[in-house]
Design goal:
Low-confidence stretches: none
Structural class: mainly alpha
Number of strands: 0
Length: 167
């Protein structure tokens, strides 16, 4: 039988993975496929990713706190059933928090700045090629960080499933 803390941890972890999959694999591609203006699609997608970034930072901080609480209760448990999570689970959660925070507070801010410079130059077609390449590099970095955090979420959810089967 799972405790309330375990259920909250599993729910929050699953929601984090689900949000990343829905936004990254469904919503963003749909925006670029359905809106006639790529700039508008980018603006809307950027706003959605910004909100997901804030939710990710808050959610990951909560996941770390829940994981620490679960491990503390496992350590003090007399039943012998409760088992602490491996140390790598904490490291993955912390890595995901750092990457999400970096992506949200540094990469996204720089993308917005470069995008504004491109718009002032008359759009991507007439902007300085170095500026366009810089935008592309930042966008690639952002996409890579997003993929890494989604894979971390998937690994942690799969670990949940494996530990539930073992119970």
């Amino acid at each position: 039988m799972r405790t309330l803390l375990e259920r909250c941890y599993a729910l929050l972890l699953s929601l984090w993975l689900g949000a990343q999959v829905v936004v990254g694999a469904i919503v963003a591609p749909a925006l670029f496929a359905s809106l006639p203006d790529r700039s508008m699609a980018g603006t809307v997608a950027g706003e959605i990713f910004a909100r997901l970034g804030v939710a990710g930072v808050i959610g990951l901080a909560l996941l770390l706190a829940l994981r620490a609480g679960l491990d503390a209760s496992a350590q003090s448990s007399l039943s012998g059933r409760a088992v602490r999570a491996p140390r790598w689970v904490h490291y993955l959660l912390l890595l995901a928090l750092v990457l999400t925070g970096f992506s949200h507070f540094w990469v996204r801010t720089n993308i917005a700045s470069v995008r504004q410079q491109v718009q002032l130059a008359g759009g991507f077609a007439s902007a300085d090629p170095a500026l366009v390449r810089h935008f592309g590099a930042l966008h690639g970095l952002s996409s890579g960080l997003f993929l890494i955090t989604a894979l971390i979420a998937l690994a942690l959810v799969l670990r949940l499933r494996d530990s539930a089967v073992a119970d």
